[in-house]
Amino acid sequence: MKHIEANNVNAYYGENHVLKDISLTMKANTVTAFIGPSGCGKSTFLRCLNRMNDYIDSFRKEGDIFIEGKDIYDKKVRVEELRQKVGMVFQKPNPFPKTIFENVAYGLKIQGIKSKSVLEEAVEKSLKQAALWNEVKDSLHKSALSLSGGQQQRVCIARALAVEPSTLLMDEPASALDPISTAKIEDLIAELKENYTIVIVTHNMQQAARVSDKTAFFYMGNLIEYDKTKELFTNPKHERTENYITGRFG
Amino acid sequence: MTKLNQNRIIDSAFKYFGIFCTFFGLIVLAIFIFNILAEGLQRIDWDFLTNLPSRRPAKAGILTAWTGTAWILGLTAIISIPLGVAAGVYLEEYGKKNRLASIIEINIANLAGVPSIIYGLLGLEIFVRTLNFGGSLLAGAFTLALLILPIIIVATREALKAVPKSLREASFGMGATKWQTIWYQTLPAASGGILTGIILALSRAVGETAPLIVIGALAYVPFVATNPMDEFTVLPMQIFNWVSRPQHGFVVNAAAAIIILLLITFIMNGIAIYLRNKWQKKVNW
User: Fold this and answer.
1) Which residue of A has its CA nearest to B98?
2) Cβ of A94 and B167 within 8 Å?
């Protein structure tokens, strides 16, 4: 089943044409990796999927994006609801300067959920899903900023999971982390695939190869190649893709 | 070799010049404080704080003046804080960054530099005459609120600017609205800087005399203000009045009142510094 579908998406920052006629579909419960050199448009495209570009004044988009069959740029769509369905994890861990509990409960609180037991249950569940519960269960009321970088990133993942999204967007989630934390995040992605559709932007091609089912290679705003990860890495159809994955440029 | 020596001489000359400049201000300030303390400290007692003004210096107290200052402080805070913070939030978080915005920004910065007596004239025309507040606490508070509004707006904007974009993105990414993001994340993260700005602005308001003279605050008020429409005096007015009297006893009174006024501003600045340090320690990105 098609979970995410993009049709002829073009995007501009002012005069700058940053996404050129991107069309692709992603299935539910899969991991899709976006790779490509810096400035190729992969992060921009990722941010189109939960409309995080809306706040950039000069940003303009053409074409349609459907998630679970709904046009997410339709006027009737409330962007807040969209982002509850399509969660996001950022490059640099960005927990709120509040306790771990408050961080994870934030999404539910802003939806108006006040019941302590509901919040506690959701926090525990989300932290377990993010493989962090055992490390922090006794320090839920300590500042999230006191944790290590890898733990902070998992708090951010738990925070995104707490509102029960269907989709998780990850913008280079491990690029600021050490190898052990990175491995934990990668294991986590493999587990989360059971319940979520995951899109991950990464500069690390080994990571893309390890975690993803399908890989999209972006270059200069174009989607050059989009295929099963194994196929793309072992048998790339385009010369550009081959050059990139073999490290000859970028 | 001579060139090198010359450079060395200039180098050490500048060092001593710098030391002189630093101590010049400090020494003047120390002499001032020492004089005031020597003159006024003996005069401060409970009676001085609780007596009404009087024609006899030994019986005169600053009850009306410091209660007036407290009233003005409170009312000015109530008026200026919501207006200033809300304006700062609007300009920084909602307002589009275009030409108009930069014109507004420059003008607010300019307003902070307008002489305070001009605000007095503005207050006289708008609050005292047009709105018919008379020479009341309310007119004084509104006038001072206008005076410090630019400071609060600028401080709020600067504090909000220092909040990293990643915090806002995290909140928006969770499906928070703009208002929820501001209320739950941005404002609390900026609160240290905003509070510091507010307190510094208020301590400026506490020391202002000129605009209050213009709007007609009285130097002699024989009763304690009980509501915002009462006429009033404040500490700087009382000091101004006393130093212009010929009797030595009033000069002593003025010195004592200056100590109290200094104390109030020092305490407020102390609170501002405390809040800033606490804030810096708590949040490191």
Assistant:
1) A57
2) yes
